[in-house]
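Dear colleague,

Following up on Tuesday's group meeting, I ran the structure prediction for the two-component complex that the binding team flagged. I've pasted the input sequences exactly as they went in, so you can double-check that nothing got truncated or mislabelled along the way. The structure tokens for the whole assembly follow below. Feel free to forward this to whoever is handling the docking comparison.

Inputs:
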Amino acid sequence: MEVNGQLALTVLMGVFLIAVAAWLARIEDWRSYTPLAGGGAVGGTKEQYVSEEKPSGLIRWLTTVDHKDIGMLYGVYSLIAFAVGGLMVVAMRIELADPSMTLLSNTFYNSLLTSHGITMLFLFGTPIIAAFSNYFIPLLIGADDMAFPRINAIAFWLLPPGALLIWAGFFPIPDIIPAQTAWTMYTPLSAGVGSGNQMNAGVDLMLLGLHLTGVSATMGAINFIATIFTERNEKVTWANLDIFSWTILTQSGLILFAFPLLGSAILMLLLDRNFGTAFFSVDGGAILWQHLFWFFGHPEVYILVLPPMGIVSLVLPRFAGRRLFGFKFVVYSTLAIGVLSFGVWAHHMFATGIDPRLRASFMAVSLAIAIPSAVKTFNWITTMWNGNIRLTTPMLFCIGFVSNFIIGGVTGVFLASIPIDLILHDTYYVVGHFHYIVMGAIAFAGFAGLYYWFPIYTGRMYQTTLGKWHFWLSMIGTNLTFFVMVLLGYGGMPRRYATYLPQFATMHQLATVGALILLVGQMIFVWNFVQSWLEGPKVEDGDPWDLGEDNLTTAEWTWFERKLQTAVTDGGEEEDAELATDGGETVTDADDE
Amino acid sequence: MATKTFDKDTILDLTVNMVPLAIILFFVVAFAVVNPFGFESLASGLQYTLLIAPFVLLAVLTYLSGKAIAGSEKSGTVYPPGQATVPGVGPLHEEEEKAEAALEESADADAEETAE
């Protein structure tokens, strides 16, 4: 009876899927669909049919292969993930305001800890970078679109199911509980060994979700490498390539070599958990997992930080009134970081008891990789030195990035030293260090990009006062929360615990206050972002930042200007119809700018 | 050809990657001279592989990227990065000359103001 029921359900599902496919095929002429990009390519001949515009409404977003639309999808997706991951950590920080277990159970705290890490790294960090790169790389290099637009779409659409699987344990599904393995998924805990509850299918679902996001990132990386190598405008030679494209190219190379290894390790772990294999349960299995994981995991750090460095290298000089100091130094040091990032993975494993000779080598390369990062920092500072600095919101976030990156970077250099690491390993010092990088630097660069390009992707301007509130609350919140964590680490507070000794209470409470300040800042951001998108003053000038005055206009703004002047069917947005086609009178419908 | 591509300016640009290469080289020599953990073929072999592999890979990538960038500088017009397709932006050397002239003008104006 039960089998018949399942059979009926399967058939019903199949019929439903066929019906959806048939419906989509009816409303969209797939064979003729050619993406419009770069504000051109309209007016094709009859033999070479080109759709006049994209489908409208929801169907447009479900079927789009336009790099700009996919960039927007990535952006929305990652900001939702940022909100989810952020709210998770707010719950954790409120729990940590008190030394004992009060609001959350210890196991639920562990679940939030795991999901916060994975959400922020895989569902926010990587996709927000993809949002910028999808939208702007083809514009910056003068390409019509990505090399493989459909692969681009598939890469995005793998992400929502990935997120649902990763968060599956939190949904009210019977017998499924969230994973509590931490984002590093160390075996034997993650293999379900022992008396804990990590044999639950929630961990399997999370691993499958993670695998999907890895496949997505790899597809995207292949696409970017192909695009940057083959689709550049003939004037954009290697000598003329912009810095953001260089960082995306390097990042894509890292993804190409790192993510398949994560995928393999995840599959091995799934086999261990479900099919009785013994990859990680025999002698040396635990250390094998750590080697495999960190061979991916350390390049992942640079996968996340290189493109934000590219955004800062692109945006910061625009508001310093001059070109980036030592442009080629930044390019070569980006490539150096790319190579060396594969030679430092075991500095995460100094405390595991691996051979001291191996530790020494990893320490050496970890110290060497600090140089290219420091070179960039000096380049940014020198670019600003005596420059004509305009403290706009994106510039403030860029300066915040540099400031936080210095603290995050210097605390990291100490950790590269074996004796210091053995003392500070697994303390809050490490948590403080890497949050200075992921929140203080990576997220700050993301905000810099979101504000800087806001006029391009919305056609409107954000509210500058709220932007500055967002910056200062984020800056104060970040430094309060994570500097206190560095001090907690010096005091010996171990990481990953839901409870702690009363002697750490004051410091933890300060960190919680910092987290709440961050929360208020991000709420202001959401309000500003949404309201300005809907009601902000329309941008009628293709150069809203006055980059032309210093002759610093880059290709994406030229595209934007052309779009405003011609208002072709590109994108088919409603706003286009309202824009003055001669680029003439300014029409504003809000007063708050 | 190689000497033409790797002129003084290009080599100066590449020094940024020579610093980490030098640091790795320093440790290769240091671990050979000071070796408190003794020699054991597998562990010591891995120890040196972990230093030499990144060294070689970084040297190769630096050479290839330097060749690609310096080569395209020699064979085509060099524009300010990201501005090759922007109308009104000239080749990099012209832009730099313009900027320098503007700087000198403002410096002269400052000097005149000070003199007054």
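Chain B touches chain A through 52 residues (CB under 8 Å).

Cheers,
M.
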